[in-house]
Each structure stands twice: as C-alpha cells, then as structure tokens.
Amino acid sequence: MKVLGLAFLALLAAKTVAGMPGGESGNKVKPLGLLKAVCYVAILALVLLGAWNVGYDVAAESYFWASQDNLEGKQFKKAYVNALRAVEIRPGNLEYWRALVTAKIYLHQFASALDDTPVLQSLNGGDLDEADAYHLAVCSLLRAQYAQVITMTQRLIRQNPLYAAPYVLQGMAFTAQKQYPEAERSLQQALRIFPNHQAALEGLAHVYFLAGYRSQALTVLEETAKRPFSPEVRKRFEALKALYAQ
C-alpha cells in the first residue's frame, strides 16, 4: 500500500507540475519554466526518500513474516534472529516487539522477555495489552517470581473477570507459595468459567494432593472421565491418578 501510495502521489505531483505554464522565450528561460524544473527535482528527491523509507519498511516486514514462519516450524533461534532484525530496522512497531518476546519465551529467555516490558507498554499507549500481560506473567512464574505473578494476574482478572487463564496462572503461583486455600479458590473460579480446562483440573488435583487431601485429588481426576477430552489427555489424567494413588 505504501508503494502504491507513493507512486500515486508522485504521478499526481508530476502531472500537476506538467500543467503549469512555462518554457523558453527566445534565448531566455521564463521564471515559471525554471520553477517547473525545480519542482521536478523536488518530486524526484521526495520519491527517492520515500522509496528509501519504504525499502526499510518492506525489509522489516519480511523479517517479521519470516519470524512467524520460523515459529510455526519450531525454528525458535531463527525466529529470534529474524524478529530482532525487524525490531532493529523499525523499533517503533509493536508487532515486531511481540514477535521478539514470543521467540524469547520459546528460547526460555524469560528475564530478557521481562526486560522488554517498558517497550511494550510504551508502544501500546502506556499500558500492556491483555495477551502481552499474560505472557509476561508466565515469564515471571517460570522465574519463580510468584508475588509478581499474583499482582499481574489480579490486574488481568479485574480487567476481564471472565478470562480463565489468569486464574489458572494465579493458582499455580499460590500453589508454589503453599497457599493452598487461595490456590483452590483461584482454580475453582477458572473451572466455573471453563469447566474442561485441563490445566485447571490438573492444578486443582495437585493442590488437594499437596494439602494432604488425596481422596479429593483422585475425585477431581476421576470425574474427568465424564468430560470430552482427547485420548492423549485422558492418558495424562490416568497417569496422575496412578501417581496420587500410591
């Protein structure tokens, strides 16, 4: 679109200049003829400058889409390199930074991803997008920054009480802190929103087991038999049942 827009404006400007009166009279150049020549030079300079900027835009966009393809192909190092190049060319593009943070998370560069928080906030108008905030909360969880996880998930929950994922993440943080009643409440809330949430069910069973309520842990897992899960997920539940029954 930028290329087409640039070409259209250049053509329009050249046509406008061509319609101006001017030219030569004897051996003298009329003032308007000189003005037309200056205008053509200015148009050419602006077109070259615009083409230069568009070239950078195209290069950054190419690196960005290459990064997306790398992520789909699980080529995380290549995804990181391409996203980084896109950011270096156009550091003011939020989508390029998101691609870079995503690649960092897949590469387990959680601290580095968290370091990008101020940039994401700035490019999003001073606050984090819901998805960005959740991904950064996951990074905090994986770095054992449990208090920070709880703060971030509570904010997400206030903004969108029907978003189940933050409740699960919060439940995991409470579990790691051995705050089992709080973890149970958080996971139960997630299941009220999304009754078949696999991570919430596994988390709730784990909370009961750690709190010493083995029978309740087994009950949670046994009731999953009544729900529509894939064979792979059912095998996981069965494995957990066998573990908790020992």
Describe this structure in words.
The chain has 246 residues and is mostly helical. Helices cover 77% and strands 2% of the residues. Strands 1-2 form a two-stranded antiparallel sheet. A hairpin with a 2-residue loop joins strand 1 and strand 2. Helix 7 runs antiparallel to helix 8 (146-159). The longest helix has 42 residues, at 31-72. Residues 2-10 and 23-29 have low confidence and may be disordered.
List the helices and strands and how they pair.
Elements lengths: L1 H17 L5 E2 L2 E2 L1 H42 L3 H14 L4 H13 L3 H6 L1 H7 L6 H13 L3 H14 L4 H13 L3 H14 L4 H13 L3 H9 L8 H15 L1
Antiparallel strand pairs: 1-2
Helix pairs in contact: 1-2, 2-3, 2-4, 3-4, 7-8, 7-9, 8-9, 9-10, 9-11, 10-11, 11-12, 12-13
- Radius of gyration, Cα only, in angstroms? 29 Å
Kindly report the oligomeric state of this protein: single chain
**Percent of residues in β-strands:** under 5%
| Overall helicity | over 70%
Order of helices and strands: HEEHHHHHHHHHHHH
Number of helices: 13
Query: What is the makeup of the main sheet?
Result: 2 strands, antiparallel
Task: Write a compact overview of the structure shown.
This protein has a two-stranded antiparallel ribbon. With 246 residues, the chain is mainly α.
Please describe the structure with a list of short key phrases separated by commas or semicolons.
13 helices; elongated; two-stranded antiparallel sheet; 246 residues; mainly alpha
